[in-house]
Amino acid sequence: GNNMSFKKKYLKNNNKIYIIAEIGINHNGIFDLAIKMIDKSKEAGASAVKFQKRNADFLLLDGAEREVPTGYLSKNENDLPDEDKAFGTWTYPDLRLEFTDDQHLELWEYSKKNDLEYIISPWDEHSLDFLVNNNANVIKIASIDTNNYWFMELVASKQIPVIASVGMCNWSEINQTWRIFEKANCPLMFLHCTSAYPSEIKDKNLNCIPVLKNLFGQDVGFSGHGVANIGTVGAVALGSEVIEKHVTLSRQMSGPDQNASLEFNELSKLITEANQVKIALGTTNKVFLQSEEVLHSVLCKKIITSQEIKKGDKFTHSNLRTVVTKRKGGLLPNKYYELIGQKASHDLGKNHIIGNEDFLDE
Questions:
Q1: Residue 96: CB partners within 8 Å, gap ≥ 6?
Q2: 331 touches 355 (CB < 8 A)
Q3: Residue 262: beta bridge partners?
Q4: Fewer CB under 10 Å: which end of the chain, C or N?
Q5: How far is residue 176's CA from residue 196's CA, in Å, rounded to a whole number?
């Protein structure tokens, strides 16, 4: 296993959350919409855009019946048909949603120009070859293939760093796939994921994130299919620094994944929030902070005598108290144990604020 952070080594070496805007198939097969979505992903602050690639000849069994895709696909974000027409059962694969190799290369080039990593999840070996031949920096594996060991062996053999989602997988399958990549010496990181569109809060099981991190000693991200920020914010708080979210020009558009996606203004808010959580996680160093000094100066108490004390008498719990004094100087309550058992250096009256000069440090 490679204990160095996958994100820092293969994605981006900075302290920001790495956000993958999963455009997926939400472009509805329209190239101009894909370009527009890349622009909007950049604007929202994404680090990468992700698309999907399928070759039906390899994906489907020879002679498997190819249904003619049904379900209306919106032409743009204002083309919103009435719901009963829009949401049918979607055909798979719906080849209306596929771009050609040349279109992908154009989108790839366009993303690069915009300083966005272009990531594809290949759904078959032909699409995988396309990524290898074009020197992809990273390959994304969809949940459905993470426990497809035949395909995982093939992917791992290509030696390109892989991000794999773990929706629909159990622990033993996740472990098996990790072993495949370890044996092939191919870098791998998992994205914790629940493959429900949209996924309910009770199904997120974010507690799996630290377990995955500890099991494999590697970064673990989160792939969210919720339409709120709670999954992402929780994942970041548990240590995820790579987040993948489906994005859409409008959730009202008709298309298979539109309604489980974030609109771009929501993505922008999510990115801000995720990075704020990252900053808020801060450090494990627990010290008295400069920013806490104001309140401390208002609330802090000092140690005083609760009765007269003669020179040479010992300070004890019963001859001391702590009170708010409003005065400078004097011992703070956290110095109590340094005072207990010491002897008074001179006679002290009741309600005397104790300072260093009042005891003989023995």
A1: 28, 29, 69, 73
A2: yes
A3: 247
A4: C
A5: 23
β-sheet bridge partners, residue 206: none
Q: Where are the alpha helices (DSSP H) in the chain?
A: 6, 31-44, 56-59, 83-86, 101-113, 125-133, 143-146, 149-157, 171-184, 208-216, 230-237, 264-281, 293-299, 336-339
The predicted structure's pLDDT at residue 84: 58
Greater confidence, 227 or 330? 330
- Hunting for tokens 């279109």 — which residue is that? 103
Question: How far apart (Å, rounded) are the C-alpha atoms in residues 198 and 227?
Answer: 7
297-316 residue pLDDT tens: 999 999 999 999 999 999 99
Per-residue model confidence as pLDDT tens digits over 327-343: 999 999 999 999 999 99
Any idea which residue has 């991190």 for tokens? 213
Residue 2 and residue 218 in contact, taking contact as beta carbons nearer than 8 Å: yes
The average pLDDT across 287-292 equals 96
Cross-strand bridge partners of residue 21: 49, 245
pTM beyond 0.85: yes
Task: List b or e across 292-316, with b for residues whose CB sees 16 or more CB atoms inside 10 angstroms.
Answer: eeeeeeeeeebbbbbeebeeeeebe
Q: Which residue has the tokens 């489907």?
A: 60
Which residues, including other chains, have CB under 8 Å from residue 179's CB and lie 6 or more apart? none
